[in-house]
Amino acid sequence: MAVSAEIREDTYYDSVTLMLISKEVKKIEGVKEALVGMGTDLNKELAENLNISNDKLRNLTPNDFFVTVLSDDELVLEKVIHQVDILLSQKKAEAGNDYRPPTIESAINYQPDSNMVVISVPGKYAAAEAKKALMNDLNVMLFSDNVTINEEKELKELAVEKGLLMMGPDCGTAIINNVPLAFANVIKKGSIGVVGASGTGTQEVTVIIDKLGEGISQVIGTGGRDLKSEIGGLMMLQGLEGLIEDPNTSVIVLISKPPAKEVAEKVLSVAAKSSKPVVVDFIGGDREQVKKYGLYPCTTLEDAAYKAVALVRGEEVKDYNGFTLNDDEIEKIVDNSIKKLAPGQKYVRGIYTGGTLADEAMKLLSEKIGGIYSNIPLSPEFKLLDINKSVRNTVIDLGDDEFTVGKPHPMIEPFGRVERIVKEALDDEVAIILMDFVLGYGSNEDPVGAMLPSIKEAQEIMQSKDKEFLIIASICGTVNDPQSLEESQKRLAEIGAIVMPSNSQAVRICAKILKRLNN
Amino acid sequence: MNNVCMCKRLYERLNKAKEIEGKLHSVFNHVININYEDELISILSKDVSMMPMAILLSNSVNFKKQNLSQDMNVVINKNNILVKEAELEINIGNISTWNSLVNFDYKRSAESKLLLKIDCLERFILNEGSLDGIASITFNIHKYVKGLKPSNTEIPLNNYSNFIIERIAEFLDYIMNNQLSKISKSSKRIIGFGPGLTPSIDDFIAGLMISFVYLSDFYDLDRSKFIAINNEIVKEVKNRTTKVSETMILFASRGECSEVLRKFIHCLLSDTEDTQFINCLRGTISLGETSGTDTLSGVYIGCRMMQNKNFRRVFRWQ
Question: Quick one: residue B124, left, alpha or beta (phi over 0 = left, psi -120 to 50 = alpha)?
Fold first, then answer.
């Protein structure tokens, strides 16, 4: 074993640099022990204690910088010195970038020409931080939840008064001036403007718009409660009015779960006054109400995207309720799927990371096969008694609060889904596992890869019983997203999954298979 | 043109001397330090919190990009800061002054509120602090020092903390028992230890000493007795640690510290809203890499020591 010390006499590096060097040096293969610091008596004593001292080190003064390393390989010691040199010169090159303002005030001070702030702090403090931002004339995206409805109302009223955006609380998706914020995909630039009270709903619509060859001007999030009576659609209206005036927007899309009746009326009447066509997806809501205002109601998120694209292109606007594949191809998939299933296998288990996608799945499935159990059921009688135990046909939203206390959202880390799919495989009556994979910024760096081992494990459990289940999946992503869409599709296909181009198509094919099974 | 904020003590020196000439001691992104008569004067970019013997510029400056290096001559007067060799001239416009002396201008809260904030401080260090320094000692030291309220959580000691905890315990023990004559010797055994340009222990001790000064006011105790302890702590600090750290510790022994830390102490001891307190915590904990956390650990331990009525009894006015 040899000790080597790299010394820089009478030289000072900031603590961030020292810590970085310490961490990086310890990672180098072959380094048994390392110490980085200033040559104070105590630090030298620690080096002695760790048996990584030598004469060079012993003669240092407190104002000398040292790195000392223990290794049994001379080459390693050279690597360390080289790495230290790189890190020190790297820090010089990055000299402008290491200040991280810890508060809004210091951030404004540091970057006074900012006009937007994204806030993600514990709910208890979120409203105060958002208010501070608004009072400083900053637009706000508030990712935090656990903000009270009264606080939300106050913030949004203040934002409206100042002509600012107050996106949230619980706003997970926005694309402002083509910059994806929080959970968002890389979407082509275009002329479709979106205001969404639903994160993955907005992602699904924008991703399909991109796949169809069009693009977006702005995507404004409002947070999930915006269209409740108490809030009155303040941000939906603010966003809508902004897009009406925006010269770069030619078609507007509004997305939300069904709003309070009077709020829907307010929003629709403002939309109706616009000379720009407005597509409205109040997911599962009253289509006749939307038609009454001369606007374009939708059947699904995919349908909203198709309609928006048709309007941009001046094409006929039709309901899109079909499949990208032709009827024969679909029938072939259904036939082949049925053959794989054993008698008794008759249920679907939807394990979703995106709440709106889960909601859409439940609505479409319940129209075809009846009641769907869930942690977020469409009717109270279908509430799961134990959210960790599926019953008959079940669709769960793993991103709901009940599943995420103290844990990251499943779109970031899919621990919950990894465990759940294996659990579902233990149930002999399961025929189909329905899943969403959401790509884009904010999501896991490899949503499909993260699930593959557990999918295989679940398949093996089934195989041990001489059974198989079907995996039906959709990938919410574009070719420009950081994760590879093509690779993701390929890897799912390799394990036998049926990969459909949208959530609604995945659900429709699932419904076809189940109906055939139960007939 | 920079409208600067200048430490009052430095301003008064400039008034007398008209011009100060020193040598560049160290250059960082947002701070440069100048050696002047065995003291350090700091020039701060506007991103940095004001501190003793400093000049805070109103502009954001990246000093690393200014071709500055150690030992260059620096001249400071009321009109400009000049480093001829680097062709750097910072023109000074208006000068406002900042008093680094201890400031007791806050509205004292009830002790019950302080105790809640101390608990909050402990949780904050654990959840948001950088534990790469010696902060892990915070959650274990009660096992070594009698009279300290146990921490609500225990976490494993890292290498640094493991090495030094018993010496810190001995040091704190002497303070708890007001054994003045032993404090200096025990502080020599810990000062200068740990990672960082201001070694972790130095930040811890600074936090501890500042908490003593301010808490003496909060509890209406004889501050001079705490100053005596602090003087013993720093008695032999010279050449035991880095120059930057030595400067910091000496100021801290008198209760003088950066504006952000002073603001935090005021928030801690007064009836501020939770949000403001958390903001101050966040501002302090983000200092340096581990410095903020280590300093707050020192403040925390100082608070816990002060919670001990027997300890406080010794420091009553007589």
Answer: alpha
